[in-house]
Amino acid sequence: MKSEKGQSIVETALMVPVLLLFLFGIVDFGRLIYITLTLDHIGREAARSASVHSSNAAIETKVNNYVAGVKAINITPPEGTRKTGDEVKIELKYDFNFITPLADTIASPMELTNTTVMRME
Question: What crossing angle do the helices spanning 7-51 and 56-66 adopt, rounded to 10°?
């Protein structure tokens, strides 16, 4: 039989990149779920604030204090035209960047949006 000294090194060299891609993918998926749930939560908080007649500046400050990097905050209807019984809609947009090397070149940044509608009190 021939010597098989380098076989385990070659197998390891072939499998490590695949395992690292799986690891980075799991981390990215976890980050994606976390940010999606966080946007949903802060969207509800912002809609609740808007429904009790808070100002747009106060709502935007609350959102930016909770989630850094929110790209856009759209609040409709405008601040001066809200009446009791109307629906207020909060739309948040966030750019999600992958840390996985291959996913970063293919699909980054990915825009996450969250829309929450609540009735004015």
Answer: 160
